[in-house]
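Many introductory courses stop at the sequence. We go one step further.
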Amino acid sequence: MKQFNKEVFKDAWHLIKPYWVSSEKKTAYILLAAIIFLNLAIVFINVLFNLWYKEFYNALQALDEKAFWIALGQFTALAFFYIISAVYSLYLNQMLQIKWRRWLTDNFLDKWMDKKIYYHLQVFNHQTDNPDQRISEDLNMFISQSLSLSLGLLSSIVTLFSFISILWIVSGPLHFSVFGYLITIPGYMVWAALLYAIVGTWITAIIGRPLIPLNFNQQRFEADFRFNLVRIRENSESVALYSGEEKEHKHLMRNFADIFENYWKIMVRQKKLTWFTSGYNQIAIIFPILVAAPRFFAKKIQLGGLMQIAQAFGQVQTSLSYIVNSYTSLAAWHAVADRLRTFEHNIESIKALQSSNNNIKYKQSDFLSVKNLSIMLPNNQTYLIKDLSFELKPTQSLLIVGPSGIGKSTLIRTIAGLWPFGSGEIELPPKEKTLFLPQKPYLPIGTLRDVLIYPNGDPSIDNDILKELLVSLNLKYLTKHLLDNNVWSQVLSLGEQQYIAFGRIFLQKPEWIFMDEATSALDEKSERLLYMRLFSELPQSACLSVGHRSSLLNYHKIKLSLLGEGKWSLEPIKKDDSKRVSYLKEEFA
């Protein structure tokens, strides 16, 4: 884990810069300028408060009632403008945060989902834990902390330069004798504040350094725990059928044990840091009064002057102690920046992996053509398929068969552009004319209507048409729930989900259909009915299926057998079209 160094801030700048040169930069700079102006206004008001301290306490010391009430009036006016500045500074800061977060979220989603990287990260790179948490939470924390820390630093710098001259003047010189030599230190309170802050910052850095890796790990452990909770919710029926509650409970508590142990370490480290910073800040309150007290009792300064020195010292010391007071936030910011940059680096590594293995050439065509296609396992030379060539034209149907694990699904992934390891050429119709059906259909969270028209269905389609479709798929009971929001992947059985997937075919009418064991959860009769309807309603569409059942031979014209060690065979299925259609009609009847 990197500590604070040049590389950390370089990585952070790489995350910050894109928004400030984007199409939203004009609005961003206007908001930032307004926030900075309000923060500077607050510093200026604090300077006026410092001058007010002198007048107010001098009035108290002199028992001057008129001056006392005038000072209270001045305080009211200063407080009024301070409150306005503070409120709108916060409001505009939050406005900038949410606009920046929206843009950066869109930017990260674009990187994550571009060229199937979200899929390849999961399959080929196991170093990116919980990308969902990095996009949803880490981005938000990074933006809010970056603004808070940078504006805090700016305020500290401006406050330092605003009050250091005041402290230099009001503290006066310090005279003392050493071995008979008279030594004079002008503005000695300034030097005292500087020395105090340097020592405090050094000790804080030593105590607080372990917080950086601890915060990084805490984010990861929290995300892992939440992921496992969501996983149980998504697989609640399977867990319930297995009666796996006890094992899942133990597994979750093992996950939480990481959170507990790491958080305990954070607590211990923050306790040590708080011991020091609390003592440091408490001593800073009384220190300037103790140092200036001799001049006060010698009647060289009045009570107002003493209070002005104490307040000015506090402002200078606080400004110089920015790292001391912000170290916990800096450590958390460091951890979040590391997680986001690690995420980006892993995305870049996947892009490099795609580029270095980009030997499969994809072209757009009016039909599917595979030429000299070789498919390999990642990072080695083991062939799943070697020098495969075939064509699939409209109205044709191809069945891919072979033992489990031989590479059937990988061939589908390669055609879809998901698997980069190999060489050869694939010509494919435009994606708006194709539809891929995996063995376990994806059902987005939303209404059943949304599920049916996913991904390219007509959003304006009439509900009555969808209800008729559900009835034809033996899902009549769902017609009452067409507009219900639900997690349908948990409500519907796998067989019902595969019915829904076929429903998408009948609604969207793709010209090219790719099915990876898309009827594996259905009985053979249901399978036959669906294929019969497919050939009846989409007679011009081409169909490529993966499956184990011998019954699938009845619905396809060509068979591609994967034999292992890269070998394959391609042959027509020995049943002419007229017999096949006749067979289907008999079964359908």
